[in-house]
Design brief:
The structure is a homodimer of 196-residue chains. Chain A is mainly alpha-helical and 196 residues long. Chain A folds into two domains: 43 residues, Homeodomain-like (Arc Repressor Mutant, subunit A, Orthogonal Bundle), CATH 1.10.10; 132 residues, Tetracycline Repressor, domain 2, CATH 1.10.357.10. In chain A, 57% of the residues lie in helices and 0% in strands. In chain A, helix 3 runs parallel beside helix 6 and helix 7 runs antiparallel to helix 8. The first copy, chain A, is elongated. The termini of chain A are far apart. Chain A binds a DNA duplex (30 and 30 nucleotides) through helix 2.
Chain lengths: 196, 196
Amino acid sequence: MTKTKHHHGNLKEALVTAGLALLEEGGIDALSLRKCAARAGVSHAAPAHHFDGLPGLKSAIAVEAFGIFSSYLQTAVDEGEQSAQARLKNLCRGYMQFGLDHGGLLAVIFGGAGLASYVPGAGKEEAHAYLILREVCAPFVGDHDDKRVIEAQVWSLIHGFTLLYVSGEFGPPHGQDGPFEAVMDLLNRIGNRPAP
Amino acid sequence: MTKTKHHHGNLKEALVTAGLALLEEGGIDALSLRKCAARAGVSHAAPAHHFDGLPGLKSAIAVEAFGIFSSYLQTAVDEGEQSAQARLKNLCRGYMQFGLDHGGLLAVIFGGAGLASYVPGAGKEEAHAYLILREVCAPFVGDHDDKRVIEAQVWSLIHGFTLLYVSGEFGPPHGQDGPFEAVMDLLNRIGNRPAP
DNA sequence: AGGCAATCTTGACGCCGTAAAGTTAACTTG
DNA sequence: CAAGTTAACTTTACGGCGTCAAGATTGCCT
C-alpha cells in the first residue's frame, strides 16, 4: 500500500472508481482513459499497464457497474408488495429507475461486447442479475414452458422500454410514470398467471 | 451543379451519403466528420458550413437512416401473410432484421437526441415509421383502450429484443430465429385479439 | 549486494472536432 | 459591365484523445 512516485498502491481499482465517477457525472461520452488517469493522480499512459486499452478499462468498469445494477434490482424486488406479480413489476421498475438514475452506467453495461464477457465465472448463468431475473420469473413458468422464453420476454420488454423512455421517446421522463404502468400491463399476460 | 474548386455542387447531400456508407461499413464508431469530408472529396473543415458540428451531421444522417428504416419496415409488413397477427409479427421481424443488417444505422437513429428531432414536420406523429406502427397495431386496440399503450408495448418489446439480440445476449444472432419466435409469442396476448 | 521485473513517467504520433483567417467563385447591385 | 458582397471551401492551428516506445524509479528475489 505504499504510495511512492512510481507505485500508486492500487491503481487498478482507483481507475475503475474514477471511471464510474466520470460516468455518473457526464455520461458515457465523459469517459476517457486520460481523464481516469488524471483523476487517479497518475500519468496518461499508466492505465496501459493494467488494462488492455480503453476497451479493457471499459470492461472492468462494466463489471463493477453490472454489480451495482444487480444490487439495484435486488433492492427494488425486495421492497414493496411481495406477490409474484408485484415482484415482477418491482424488478422492471428498478430496471427503469436505474436507467434514469445511472444512464452512464447502463450505457457502459450494454454498450460493450455483451454481458457474458463481464461476469467473472465461466457462464453468464451465475451473474447476480440473471439469478434475480430467473427467480422473479420462475412463478410464471408453466410446467411445459421453457423458462428462458419467459425471461427473454420480460428482459426484452423492460430493456426496450427503459432505453426508449430514457431517451425521451415516450415524452419527458420526469413526469408521471404513466408510460411505465402502461407498458408493464403487458406483464399481466405473461406465462401462466400464478396464484396471487 | 458546377463543381469548381470552391463549390462542390451538393456537398450537404454528399456528406450525408458518405456518412451512411461509413456507418454501413464500420458501424457507429467509424463515423467521423473528417472521414465524411474526405469521402466527399472536400477539406475537413468544409462540413461546418452545412451542419452544426458533428451532432448536426449525425442528425442529418439519422433523418436519412430513419427513412431507410421506415421503408424496411413497410416492406416487411407488406410481404408474407397479411392477417393482423402476421402483419404485427412481420413488422417486428423487419425491425430485428434491420438491426442485424444495418446496426450502424440503428445506432445513429436511436443513439441521438431522440427521434422527435429527426422528423421534418412539427410533431413526430407524421413520421412514416410511426404511421406503420400505428396502422399495424390498430386491429389490436379495443374500443376502450388507449392505442398509444398498445403501440408502446409493441415498440418496447421489439426494440429491447433487437438490441439484446444484436449484441449477442440471446446467443450468437446468426443461428436460427428461435429467440425471435419465443419473444414474439408475447404478441399473441397483446390487446384485443382481432379476428383472424 | 546485485539483478530483475513490475510500475509509472515522458515524449511522440496520428486522428479527432473545432475555430479563425485566408482564398476563390458566384451572385447582386448600380 | 464593373464593383461590392456573400457564400463555399481551404489552410492553419489548437487541444483532447488512444496508443506506442523509451526511460526512470521502485520493490522483490536470489
